[in-house]
Amino acid sequence: MKLPRSEQREVEEEFLRLRLERMNEMSEEELISSDLFAFKLRLNAYFKKNKFDEAFTFAKQLQKYIKISRRSTAEIASNLGIHKNKLSRLVNDRENPNIDLMYRLEEHSSKEIPAFYWWRIYARELEFKIRTDHETKRLEASKVENPLNLNA
Q1: pTM over the 0.70 mark
Q2: Whole-angstrom distance, CA of residue 78 vs CA of residue 62
Q3: Rounded CA Rg of the chain
Q4: Pick the CATH number of 53-131 from 1.10.10.10, 2.40.40.20, 1.10.260.40, 3.40.50.2000
Q5: What is the largest CA-CA distance in the chain?
Q6: How many CA atoms lie within 13 A of 32 on its CB side?
């Protein structure tokens, strides 16, 4: 049964009021947990698309994770046992992540964001780069001498 427009508006306003009230009552830990859960849901939706999206680079997702944690980048770097400059390079997409970092991110998130999620984000980005970076591919191919001659 559909409500009249005026009643629907009242119901929506009441819902928003109650939601805002509840959010104001939430502890910092509950807010982080809620944001982390939403982050995980967005990642799952991205994985289902099975297509690279520039908004989901490793660097951008790491930035979002740091924001969700409500900690400074220096504090996150310390928590992860890496230098703050390394974290800065990762966040600014000037350095590639390694599997060790992904294990640490899993542990840091209390295992809410598994290491393989971080790997899937990075792997999809890397595959896109490999498929589309024709200039680097040509440059590297020019360095190969005496390739296999397979005419099948």
Answers
A1: yes
A2: 15
A3: 22
A4: 1.10.260.40
A5: 77
A6: 15
